[in-house]
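Suppose you are handed only these lines of text.
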Amino acid sequence: MRAVTFHEHGGTEKLIYEEVPSPQVGPEEILIRVKACALNHLDIWLRQGIPSYKIALPHISGCDVSGVIEKVGATYMGHLTPGQAVFVMPGLSCGNCDECLAGKDNCCASYQILGAQRNGGYAEYVNVPASNVFPLPANLTFEQGAAFPLVSVTAWHMVKTLGDVQPGETVLVMGGGSGIGCMAIQMANLLRARVITTVGFADKVEKAKKLGADEVLNHSEENIVERIAALTQGRGVNIVIEHIGQKVWENCLRSLGRGGRLVTCGATSGQIASFDVRYLYSRQLTIFGSYMGTRDEFVEIARLAESNKLRCIIDSTYPLEDARTAQERMLDRKNFGKIVLTIGTSET
Ligand code: ZN
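From them, the structure of the protein bound to zinc ion can be written out as follows.
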């Protein structure tokens, strides 16, 4: 099959479009003919090389996959059949440990992400444990189905489960044009909160408003802390949803009002953040670390997508062989929504 691989860590020039052996389908796995695969920042970190992910080389990235079932494993007894359109929950867990049995599968000690610890969807075919494969809702194209899983399950875990956003609360979503940002804005809206978001480019302001943000701040031109204070009559926001890390951390904490919650799931601008502990306790703030989301949450949000309550925002699509250009667009931060690779024809 054709795939985009990298044989050593480095820049986008390390991505190679080449012929590789097709994956073998395990007894409880499903082989998917990939139609679309969305990019995530994890793809870039894995290509560059990060110590927390030990991966075998050559590697095929791609966490977010939609496609058509080519073949089911020998002992698979479920309802999915060849020819069916599907999308994939990218978090893989053992299914048997205490955490998995308690429904906290994203805390599983052997948790893996498709396209990280195992080969992913920058390829014509990918094999996935059957328990991670779900029918693609009929109202989603393959591109939308690929754009949806990772950022949606992550954002739902942050906004609904950890942030526990309540009607009437004010939520600050940092980086509203990112995949997570686009989903977090819609989710906070769905939970009837007031949504303030930030973007880095002027052309993203209107797009964020269309998604449901009540106020959009440009963090390259405006003082976020002062603007938040003005917009909240000095009270600060109730919840901050952020994935940018170091560069914004202090401003995020300073934007929170008393009893505020900060939920973070990333560190794209740097991993070392510092803050004044006195500020943390005197304001009674809570900081949540968030990583992916659970299978139950995935089922919940898939229903929301199926009933058009969540929209999958696609910035651009590229054929698989242009994965290098696609990753460069992500690195430029010009995208609003997800960047998606397409493989073969893409009609549902
Ligand atoms: Zn487990």
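What can we learn from it? Residues 248 and 262 are 12 Å apart (CA to CA). The radius of gyration is 20 Å.
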